Amino acid sequence: MSARPQPGATRDLLELIFGFGVILFALWMPEFPQRIFSTVALVVTLAIVLARRPGVNELGLGWRGLVSSLWILPAAIVVSIVSVIVAKKIGTLHPLYKGDFKHIAGYVLWTIYQQFLMNDLFMPRLTRLLGNASAAVGMAAVLFAAAHLPNLPLAAVTLIWGAISCGLFRRYQNLYTLGLAQGLLGLCFAVCVPDALHHHLRVGLGYLRYTPPASRP
Questions:
Q1: Which among 126, 173, 185, 205 is placed 20 to 30 Å from 145, CA to CA?
Q2: What's the sign of the alpha-carbon dihedral 43, 46, 52, 54?
């Protein structure tokens, strides 16, 4: 039997709605104001989480679970290698858009923060609200996928990865391996799936306004 939602459900719900709303608002802004508001969204979501004064290990930013979760990285490497081989065979493999170190490093840092949002902002509040960890994992994955709309291919894979990574975080309580694994898998997805489908991994308004490089003036 599922446990009843704990006291403080109103605060959990408001923080969840406000945090997710700020993220969506940033994703659906035009490019120039988005650069500014993205920083605001980052600060706001960080403040929501830290206002509860969680410990470093509770956030998944300590040493807890690091060594025992390291197997996730070679597993992600194997998946990536197989995906690249298949993509090359079927003719969809292509170079990475903006494949410089700065762009790649920035993307990996962003994937680590995405794991922070999902496992430190969404999951604890959903678990308390729903009173069931499995239901919270599923709902967190849905929210994670929804944030990647209207990019349907990306939303589909993030729905699956969201559920997997939330389950792994519950077991190991470490963001580093999950963030790095997501970064690797995301880069693999970017080069294995045609840009015409995922629009350089863009989401929100950026996905709708995407123009292929060849057709740009």
A1: 173
A2: negative
- CA nearest to 186, candidates 166, 203, 167: 203
- Contact between 11 and 124 under an 8 Å Cβ cutoff? The reply is no
Closest by CA to 59, choosing from 111, 107, 9, 118, is 118
pTM above 0.90, yes or no: yes
Nearest to 190 by CA among 130, 109, 107: 107
> Residue 13: is it exposed, middle or buried by C-beta count within 10 angstroms (0-12/13-18/19+)?
middle
119 with 58: CB under 8 angstroms?
A: no
- In this predicted structure, what is the pLDDT of residue 1? 44
What gap in Å lies between CA 184 and CA 204, rounded to an integer?
Answer: 22
Instruction: Look up tokens 């300590």; give the residue.
Output: 62
- Amino acid identity, position 137: V
What is the Cα–Cα distance from 209 to 25, expressed in whole angstroms?
16
**If residue 120 lies in a helix (H) or strand (E), which one and from where to where?**
none
Decide: 59 and 175 in contact? Cβ < 8 Å: yes
- Locate the domains of the chain by residue range: 9-215
Q: What is the length of the chain?
A: 217
